[in-house]
Design brief:
The complex is a heterotrimer of chains A (385), B (349) and C (165). Chain A has 14 helices and 11 strands. Chain A has helices spanning 24-38, 65-68, 88-101, 121-125, 138-154, 160-172, 187-191, 220-224, 254-266, 272-275, 288-295, 304-309, 326-329, 333-349, and strands at 5-12, 48-52, 79-82, 107-115, 195-198, 200-201, 210-219, 231-240, 278-280, 362-369, 374-381. Chain B folds into 2 domains: 4-116 and 205-227, Thiolase/Chalcone synthase (Peroxisomal Thiolase, Chain A, domain 1), CATH 3.40.47; 125-203 and 229-347, Thiolase/Chalcone synthase (Peroxisomal Thiolase, Chain A, domain 1), CATH 3.40.47.
Chain lengths: 385, 349, 165
């Protein structure tokens, strides 16, 4: 019964540590107007706006979508604001798509952003609640023990993470919007970068960026009239599990496995490794690539690292992953998930420029949040399903 | 469109300060009550969506731990809006319209007591030009009330009547916070709080939580003896810049009401945290004197921020269930001076 | 262009909000036990797992928890990381070790520091004990436990704690 939905416009900002050349209004408009232009539209053509962002304290504005209503042309229209931790960019795209799939709207603009430089993000994350356990290890300290657990369980070679980081950083050199572009990056530079949260090295971590991403979504009638090739949404899925419970497998979380399974089923995919041409997945620390390859059923448990090792996830591999350079190269948190969804749509549209995978027909966009308890994913294809 | 109905509604008592329980301890009984009353087995609920605010809670990612109240195992399809729970209900309704779920649990929680709500809401304003002025929500509402009084026939007496009626109605609502019989002349003899608003024109400061289950078609018919069918639901936003709006009107409410089919209404539950806003909303929705407004006492009797809008939809369903209404309207608002509004029209069989 | 015509790129608007947080029933009880030098968790009546610190519910079953169970003070390191970078508000000599510690009797690990042990010697499966602050300093806080340190017991095999990483 659901209507078809397609991505008909994609836009993103230049991502950087501090975009002090623009206000929050300017930042979201930079992405939104690029997406509208790509779709051959203006704000007036849009029926509804869906905004996504991670915690409000990152910018110091409570429910900032209220103040963005004017700049995003939403006055007189429905506007929603999604917040599902790190997965929010993906969930926001899914909510926007569902407005079209439900047949409620024909054209929806969706925007995700983060402008962390306007507040103090580290402060926002470390409000001290007297009766809660304090953070004892900083941001990476939460993830490093899980990576150690993965290394122990899988027996992956210690340089797997370095190889992932090298691939993503080289891919970023082909992406004009990427925040971190390290010309001449090589294996030794990453291997010799400081160990921050052992086993995580500096160059295996993501930056913190200001940036925004936007997409224009349309129903079948709108997509058929779009100036450029649309990317059709074949399936979307979201799954959540509790943050902490006894016996929780945080290395290969059930919520991620279930989310991928239901996603493939809806998209009619039985062999994801074979049928999916490329992926943009949320990898904030390099080691999450092999972990997610297993979680997403591209590799058997404990063998995800082999895909990295064998070059399968490289731009010229059989399942390229994070052609854009990924979260390791640009991380405007609230937008990071939507960037994955938008980059994969651009691959399908043949609009990915220098990091285009030739002939990509079916792709996966993936985002996750917090302590690997929130997942959102979509499959897009070059034809309606 | 699929037929979707509200099949259950549960809420905590609204209190000035819930300082015994944490959010999860508040939510567990409410969520369990909503699930039990719904008649939909918990394992069959297809989607979950919540509404809450980090700034209200004073912590980033405050909604994350709230998931603990659900027993999200095996993993569930779940989402969250940084908005009043009424918009979470809208997202859930959309999911059901897509055919992605046949039922959904919506919940919201909000405690104003940890912080100072008049200061917290200042951060809702444009950070470059408005927030530095420190314009608090009561002062902005007073600007709006002044605009209403000066440009229409509405009077301070009508505002006092609104306050008195809501709190009198609330005497029958065990979950309300501020209830009782008030004499309009005595209210008008009180000093101004922020002119032209007196204390009685303002909502109380509340802590509370609400949960609602909605279900589609046969799932609703099987689960509930009297589903409150959602005949229309729509929401609209206006400019954030108060100077660009006619504050004496709510064009977004009118538009949402029109799209949601807000006609022939017997009972309207309006989310008006200030008495004059009820007058604006009634005008915007063209609700005549024959429409019963806020049998629950509305936001003037209990105003848990991020919750009170969802509660209005629940109370509108109550009006269907107890036979007060054949068609009832639930309304939610967000942002300074009614910037964003949602209208949900419910109907019995 | 004169200085007055330079674009304004940023303005600073300090804001200050104060919050008075409520720990809740279960955490209050946990903190009262901490004040007495005891680590007390709660058992879920449905899945029988012991949570520490308990927040009054079993997140997996979605039910309120009541039964109290004393756990620790010894435990097992299930996984860890070695911190070699300074963080805001953390005043420790680098490098130091932060670990997931499964307290004896508990079914969920606890995030804590390991001290009195070279970072290179910390192992998955290593046995540790809680080191408490001086008794006169105890209050209703996590900080009564300063850190954990190794004890002279054989390591626990990986298979015995692999569900609790």
């Amino acid at each position: 019964m659901a209507e078809h939905c397609a991505v008909i416009g994609v836009g993103q900002t230049q991502h950087d540590a501090k975009r002090i050349d623009v206000s929050q209004y300017g930042l979201v408009r930079e992405a939104a107007e690029r997406a509208l232009e790509d779709a051959g539209m203006t704000y007036a053509d849009i029926d509804a706006v869906v905004v996504g962002k991670a915690p409000d304290m990152f910018e110091g504005v409570m429910m900032p979508e209220l103040m963005l209503a004017d700049s995003l042309g939403a006055v007189g229209k429905p506007m929603l604001r999604v917040h599902t931790a790190g997965s929010v960019g993906g969930s926001t795209a899914i909510v926007a798509a569902s407005l079209i799939q439900a047949g409620v709207h024909d054209r929806v603009l969706t925007v995700s952003y983060e402008k962390q430089s306007e507040s103090n993000a580290m402060w926002a994350l470390s409000v001290k609640v007297p009766f809660q356990q304090g953070m004892v290890a900083g941001a990476g300290g939460y993830f490093a023990p899980l990576i150690r657990a993965y290394m122990k369980r899988s027996g992956a070679p210690e340089d797997t993470g370095i190889r992932v980081a090298l691939k993503d950083r080289q891919n970023a050199l082909k992406n004009p919007y990427a925040h971190l572009k390290l010309e001449g990056i090589d294996f030794d530079q990453i291997a010799n970068s400081p160990m921050l949260w052992d086993p995580i090295r500096y160059l295996e971590t993501c930056p913190s960026s200001d940036g925004a991403c936007a997409m224009v979504l349309g129903n079948a009638a709108v997509a058929k009239k779009a100036p450029k090739k649309p990317a059709w949404v074949h399936a979307t899925a979201m799954r959540t599990e509790p943050t902490m419970f006894s016996g929780r497998d945080q290395v290969n979380p059930q919520a991620g496995q279930d989310c991928a399974r239901v996603l493939y089923k809806k998209a009619g995919i039985s062999d994801p490794r074979k049928e999916i041409d490329c992926c943009e997945i949320y990898v904030p620390f390099s080691w999450f690539e092999p972990m997610w390859m297993e979680n997403l059923h591209f590799a058997p448990e404990s063998e995800g690292w082999k895909m990295t090792y064998e070059g399968a996830t490289a731009l010229d591999g059989d399942l390229p992953v994070n052609m854009s350079g990924g979260v390791l190269s640009s991380n405007p948190i609230g937008a990071s998930g939507m960037l994955r969804f938008a980059e994969i749509a651009n691959q399908i549209r043949g609009e990915a420029g220098e990091h285009q995978v030739d002939g990509a027909k079916k792709g996966l966009g993936h985002a996750y949040g917090g302590g690997s308890q929130f997942f959102s994913m979509w499959i897009v294809g070059d034809q309606p399903l | 469109m699929r037929d979707v109905a509200v099949v259950s509604f549960a809420q905590t008592k609204n209190v000035r300060r819930e300082n015994r329980r944490n959010e999860v301890e508040m939510l567990i009984p409410v969520v369990q009550e909503a699930v039990e009353k719904s008649g939909v087995p918990k394992q069959e609920i297809g989607f979950y969506c919540s509404g809450s605010s980090d700034y209200l809670a004073g912590q980033s990612f405050s909604f994350v731990m709230a998931v603990d109240c659900l027993g999200a195992w095996p993993p569930i399809a779940e989402s969250h809006v940084e908005m009043d729970g009424a918009w979470a209900l809208y997202e859930a309704w959309i999911k059901i319209q897509c055919g992605e779920a046949d039922s959904a649990l919506i919940f919201s929680f909000g405690r104003s007591s940890p912080g100072v709500i008049r200061e917290t809401l200042v951060l809702q304003l444009d950070p470059y030009t408005l927030a530095p002025l420190g314009a608090d929500p009561v002062s902005l509402a007073a600007l709006q009330a002044r605009a209403l009084l000066e440009s229409t026939d509405h009077s301070e007496r009508e505002m006092a009547e609104v306050a008195a009626r809501n709190r009198s109605n609330a005497k029958n609502n065990p979950y309300a916070q501020l209830t009782g019989d008030f004499d309009v002349d005595e209210l008008l003899a009180e000093p101004y709080f922020v002119s032209p608003l007196r204390k009685h024109d303002c909502a109380p400061i509340s802590d509370g939580a609400t949960a609602i289950v909605i279900a589609a078609d046969d799932v609703a018919r099987k689960a509930s003896k009297k589903p409150a069918w959602i005949r229309g639901i729509d929401h609209r936003i206006e400019s954030h810049q108060l100077g660009l709006r006619d504050l004496s009107q709510s064009t977004s409410t009118s538009l949402a009401g029109e799209k949601a089919g807000a006609i022939d209404i017997d009972v309207a539950e309006l989310h008006a945290p200030f008495s004059h806003q009820e007058l604006i909303l009634r005008d915007a929705l063209s609700l005549g004197d024959d429409v019963k407004i806020n049998p629950s006492g509305g936001a003037l009797a209990a105003n848990s921020v991020m919750v009170a809008g969802l509660t209005r939809i629940g109370e509108a369903a109550n009006a269907i269930w107890d036979g007060t209404a054949r068609r009832a309207l639930g309304h939610a608002t967000s942002g300074p001076c009614l910037q964003q509004n949602l209208v949900c029209v419910l109907e019995g069989e | 262009m004169s200085e007055a015509k330079q674009p304004i790129k940023s303005i600073v608007t300090p804001s200050r909000l104060e919050y008075d947080f409520t720990p809740g029933i279960a955490t209050t009880r946990f903190l009262r036990h901490m004040e007495e030098g005891r680590i007390v968790g709660q058992r879920c009546a449905e899945c029988t797992k012991v949570y520490v610190p308990a927040r009054g519910s079993c997140p997996r079953c979605g039910v309120a928890t009541k039964e109290e169970v004393e756990v620790g003070p010894n435990g097992t390191v299930t996984t860890f990381c070695v911190v070699r970078v300074p963080s805001e508000n953390i005043d420790l000599t680098l490098p130091y070790t932060a670990a997931h510690i499964l307290l004896d009797g508990a079914d969920i690990p606890f995030f804590a520091l390991i001290q009195e042990c070279d970072a290179a010697d910390v192992r998955m499966g290593m046995r540790v004990e809680a080191v408490w602050a001086a008794k006169e300093e105890w209050g209703p806080t996590f900080e009564n436990i300063r850190y954990f340190r190794p004890i002279d017991e054989p390591d626990v095999p990986f298979d015995d704690f692999k569900e609790h990483l």
